[in-house]
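Hello,

I think I submitted the magnesium ion job twice by accident. Can you confirm which output corresponds to this input? Input:
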Amino acid sequence: MKKIAILGSTGSIGTQTLEIARTNGDLEITALAAGSNVERLEAQIREFHPSLAAVWTEEKAKELKSRIRDLDVRVVTGMEGLIEVAEQPESGILVTAIVGMIGIRPTIAAMKAGKDIALANKETLVTAGHIIMPLAEECGVRILPVDSEHSAIFQCLNGENRGELHKILLTASGGPFRGKKKEELRDVQVEDALKHPNWSMGRKITIDSATLVNKGLEMMEARWLFGVEPEDIKIVVQPKSIIHSMVEFADGAVIAQLGTPDMKLPIQYALYYPQRRYLPGERLDFWKLGQITFEEPDMENFPGLGLAFDAAAAGGSLPTVYNAANERAVALFLDRKIGFLEIPELIERCMKEHKVIKAPSVEEILQTETEVYERIEQMRH
Ligand code: NAD
Ligand code: MG
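Support: Only one job matched these inputs. Its output is below.
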């Protein structure tokens, strides 16, 4: 029986991970961490019987404890709580389904405790990939990608010689605003940006898909996961999200992974790798599908993507600035405090002002994050 702990169990990836545990019946859930949705967490605890649960605040912990006072579950809080969930002795795999750089410390703690990482929390690799990847090697643990594109690349590389990998062809849907020009994007509303054409995901990543920042973050995620240079990653827009990504080898052969847009496939693949399990759900029907079309990404009207390549090229602490500025800008957009086009504008301003730290430590990464947040706060007053 595989034993898994989940950071962010009440979110989009977290709940789908538990769905997989439910249908397979041979995954034991040992620990769960969530932010504030105590009601959903209680239901999960009652169904999956973990021995440890984490919530962010003391107040939420009190509420949770009172809800589950009939159960023998330890409740922990804050960063220490997340780390406890990550290190918990019983588990073998940690699913990182939390949003943001808050995932860095628990991911490191889990690796040091010998856990494999099923990684959805791309922000951790984007900002601390230079620390995470060597550490995984040192600790003898695996980083198994959950992000659909990265799972696709991982599947395409199965049994191949990594040295013969020539290019990664990272596919993108183009998001809900594909084809729109800047003038049309100026006044788009939160509701419009939250309507992703193919995937149902958490709010932050859905906005990132609309700005193409998600693809920028994924490019940096891929760079670390597969040890390639940013210029060897090509973004290919494929609006229906049928091809989840491709790799090109030295001889020009291209291998792709295709499927319906369902995150349960990459999650399940990460949890059972190298095994494949039956997964209920729709199958691709090529007769109905008819066409798969391709486009170049529009970097002019969606400058968030180009900025990611700039951040990756400079490296060091600049990807952290890119990520932190985006995170804050997205929160402001969701609160209707700024417009859609201000998201990349804020990222660009923060990146321009930043003095790059070459190989930042975790402390420096988190310090950079705080500085970016403070800077954005200042800019708005
Ligand atoms: P989400 O917003 O749906 O869920 C986030 C989860 O994190 C929730 O359970 C929330 O309670 C928890 N959380 C937030 N703050 C917390 C805190 N302080 N302490 C403990 N838990 C906290 O997000 P999501 O869409 O599931 O995305 C999770 C990660 O996976 C992100 O890094 C995202 O980029 C990545 N990802 C998501 C998808 C997708 O389909 N949703 C696809 C690829 C990658
Ligand atoms: Mg993705």
